[in-house]
Amino acid sequence: MKLLEATMEEVGGKVGLLPIGSVEQHGPHLPMGTDSIIAEEVARRVEERFPEHVLLFPTLYVGCSMEHKGFPFLGVRYVTMVNYLLDLLESSKSLNLRGLVIVNGHGGNESVLDIVQREFNFSSPPFKVHVVNLVGKDAHLFGNVDLHAGSAETSKMKAIRPSLVREHKLREVKDTSVKEGIFSEITTYEASPHGIINDGDVEVNEDKGRVSIEKAVEEISEFIRKKYLR
């Protein structure tokens, strides 16, 4: 069930599902909303499996993207994101949820979500928050490490939104190497003129992207089955 389409009498007793992403550059070949699009698609497919038990929240498109300063992005400060999410979770108590699963498609949100999850869960709330981070999963499928806009994200987008992948633009990319200190000491702009952080050439493989998406859907679905439906 989609929260935006449910009445106040229909929302209670369900497991909330909240996709979170980002709006930031993803190289010359992927859309700014790549992280959000992937998280939203995974969450949508999970909701389709459990329409009577899952309450799909509207996607939070803008996250923490300060690591992309110098490139186009939209974002908020880490402290702003923490407070916003804690306020959102506090108000979510009114929905009488059984639990809430956050599907996060952006690596830059992970540290914030860890704080939010701990702060909320340790405050004796009526339900618990579980975070699923999609970034970095299934690296073995591609043979290299995709930290941003590389093989994994490009292949996932090719699988779910192929018209948004400008594959021909990859011919312009000369260097995708992972620089020391990326995301902790230096920004993406300082590390790569192309905005891609991938250990090796970017592989575009629709089949591998499809497998990665389905594995994420199954992982979340299995968690919901074991935690709430048995």
UniProtKB/TrEMBL annotation:
One of its GO terms (molecular function) is hydrolase activity, acting on carbon-nitrogen (but not peptide) bonds, in linear amides. It comes from the Archaea. Its cofactor is Zn(2+). InterPro entries: Creatininase-like_sf, Creatininase/forma_Hydrolase. One of its GO terms (biological process) is riboflavin biosynthetic process. Keywords: Hydrolase, Metal-binding, Zinc. Pfam families: Creatininase. Signal peptide: none annotated. The keyword Cytoplasm does not apply. PANTHER family: 2-AMINO-5-FORMYLAMINO-6-RIBOSYLAMINOPYRIMIDIN-4(3H)-ONE 5'-MONOPHOSPHATE DEFORMYLASE, 3-DEHYDRO-SCYLLO-INOSOSE HYDROLASE. This is Creatininase family protein. The lineage of its organism: Archaea, Thermoproteota, Thermoprotei, Sulfolobales, Sulfolobaceae.
